[in-house]
Amino acid sequence: MSTSSLHIGNLRVDFAKRLLSIDRFDDVINDRSSADVVGLPTAISLKTKEQFKRTLIVNIGCAITDQTIQIKEHTLNDNLLTIKIDNGTELRIKYDTSEKLYEKYEIEWTSIESYHYMKDVIQTNEISQWYGGPQIAQQTWPLAETMQHFSPYLPSDTLKRYWLCSSKFAIFVPDNVPLWTAYSCGTLSLQAQIDNSPYVGFYANTVAPVLSYSLFVAKCCTLREFHIVLHGNLYDSCTSVPDEALIRKPIWSTWARYSEKVTQHDVLEFAQEILNHHAPICQLELDDNWATYYGDFEFNKAKFPDVEAMCNQLKQWNIRLTLWIHPFVNLESDNGKNLALRHLFVKDSSGQPGIIEWWQGQAYVIDFTNPEAIRWFCEQLEKMKKLGIFSFKFDAGEMTYLPNDVHLHSGTSPNDFCEAYVRAAASFGSSVEVRVFRRTQGLPIFYRTMDRLSTWNNVGLNTLIPVVLNFGLHGYYYNLPDMIGGNGYDGQKCSKELYIRWMQAFDLFFANEFLLSMQFSYPPWQYDDEICDIFHRIMQKRNELLDFLIEACRKSCKSGQPVIRPLWWLSEDPEALCSGDQFVIDDTMIVAPILTEGATSRIVFLPNGIWEYELTRNTYTGPSKLIIKAPLFHHAPPYFTLIG
Q: Which of 139-153, 177-191, 268-282, 482-496 has the highest mean pLDDT?
């Protein structure tokens, strides 16, 4: 079989019939651009010189199934390799080594054929771990056990298009790609697809999708250094801490306890109850069903007869009131019936305001890519503030709640709607909460995670650390967790043991960075005096750590690094690379919560250094693995402080 080679940068490109392999070496090989090429490009493989074995394979051009077509021509000019296939498809690989810590390879597929999709599949060897990608309900860290079926990569509780490999590779996909992804057992699939997808309205004049992405390969550096530099080049970092009042005291929400039945009487009674139990509170969040109709910014007088009096009473108690807000205008609302407002709503393919289904009925959606719509929306919220509302919780904003074949006022991607919604929310200050995100890492606001169930497993307690670490990897450091004890859906109340472990793990430490603030709805006094005693001891311990935690947040703003960090931030030991149930704060503290029902001890991995265990004051020298006791009725989860 005829074979030949080309070289671009430190990549060796080998052609054979139906095979293109690209092997990475650290030594530079001279270009040989005059080689004859036979067959089609179907794979890229990268090898490390140290181990001289495959660490990454990219099966490319998976959409090209016709094996009778051949390469028409190829060119290698400086750092750009172009391969043209006789059906009009082109593969380009551009090499860039201008960065000190990594090489960059930009890979792009284009075609004049109306391919349904363009697809590449990325695989690693068994010892490699992957991190990043979208937020999913049953989140894991690393991604080894995660199964994600093919779906559009849209801001429906998702994060940026970035994946990091422990073998010091990274993948980044730009926003203009109509991206679909899947992940299973170490295999990441990237697919560009327009037809039968939410992207179709944005690519009406495009014959075929373009698949482009960047492959980053670390040079001589640690995984931590590689990620810090790469992330800093891809995204803005937050340079100021959101409202520190929300770090110092928790949020209390009406949602899980009162749901949609909440009234003015309930709000005041709940606030008085919190004060009577001497529980700390920064603000009380009034959640769902306060308006007469969804989309009318008017309080239901039957449920809330005197909002100003309610807000004034809360102010006297030094409690701020925040309000649940969404982008929907239901059809039956006064605003939904107002023809003069129709131009402010998201359009469908016919150019008419699109009607969507959300969890509270049929509605139009305010088009936040329209400056006039933003002005109108903000005017409605300013009216709420004049009543005494302090700030807002902005719910929804995902692409899943937009019309099919959506047409926005402006923007080149469906992601633009989500970004515009978040930026409109951020105009109300650093105390707001949002739940979608797209290139908004630089905003000093709070980002809410997915709802958690009141369980140990199955979207419960054991998923919170993986969620936190994934948010941090993507640059969303100021993260708001779900309610302590979960949402209690379908009447599923959190058990006493689970409630204690939830408080230990997340009241004490996630009053900082990603889970910058903590949030209650089910109060501890709904259980018994024993739970109340633990709650107050946890709050006391948390107050002792507040200065450390807030200073860690401020340092994060200067360094661009997360406060809550994965264990591999300190060590690339295989134990650290696989750890999803411990985390690091500011390089000087390791936290190892109990996440298993009935457990009173656990295994902990400690990296280099001398570490003191808070419970016993015993010291341990790392790297080491040890079993430590973790009694249920304690004021903190297991944590270790670096002392030398």
A: 268-282
By percentage, how much of the chain surpasses pLDDT 90? 58
Contact 384, 297 (CB under 8 A): yes
User: What secondary structure letter does DSSP report for 167?
Assistant: T
Q: What angle do CA 425, 428, 432 make, to 5 degrees?
A: 65
Q: Are 572 and 168 in contact (CB under 8 A)?
A: no
Which residues contact residue 359 at a Cβ distance below 8 angstroms, ignoring those fewer than 6 apart? none
Q: Determine how many CB atoms are found less than 10 A away from the CB of residue 373.
A: 22
Specify the DSSP class assigned to residue 524: G
All structural domains of the chain: 4-232 (2.70.98), 567-642 (2.60.40.1180)
pTM confidence score: 0.91
What is the H or E stretch that residue 590 is in? strand 589-591
Count of Cβ atoms closer than 10 Å to residue 375 Cβ: 11
- Please say if the pLDDT value at position 529 is more than 90: yes
The two tokens of residue 90 are 């082109």
β strands within 420-555, DSSP E:
433-434, 446-448, 479-480, 519-520
312, 433, 297: which is closest to 366 by C-alpha? Answer: 297
User: Is 636 in contact with 537 (CB distance < 8 Å)?
Assistant: no
| Tokens encoding 324 | 């649940």
Indicate the SS3 state at residue 123.
strand
Regarding predicted confidence, which is higher, 629 or 19? 629
Angle of CA points 390, 436, 346, to nearest 5°: 95
Compute, in degrees rounded to 10, the torsion defined by CA atoms 143, 147, 151, 153: -10
Amino acid at position 523, single letter: P
Half-sphere exposure for 603 (CA within 13 Å, toward CB): 7
First to last CA, the chain: 61
Number of neighbouring beta carbons within 10 Å of residue 526: 13
Helices (H) and strands (E) in the chain, counts: 12, 34
Taking alpha carbons only, the member of 461, 458, 512 closest to residue 484 is: 461
The two structure tokens encoding residue 445: 């606001």
d(CA 384, CA 402): 26
Confidence of residue 44 (pLDDT cuts 50, 70, 90): low
User: What average pLDDT does the segment 491-520 reach?
Assistant: 71
CB atoms within 10 A of CB 127: 12
CA 65 vs CA 173, 223, 615: distances in Å: 24, 37, 61
CB burial of residue 140 (10 Å; 0-12, 13-18, 19+): middle
Gyration radius of the chain over CA positions = 27
Q: Please report which confidence band the pLDDT of residue 38 belongs to, taking 50, 70 and 90 as the band edges.
A: very low
CA angle 616, 620, 626 (to 5 degrees): 85
Residue type, 459: V
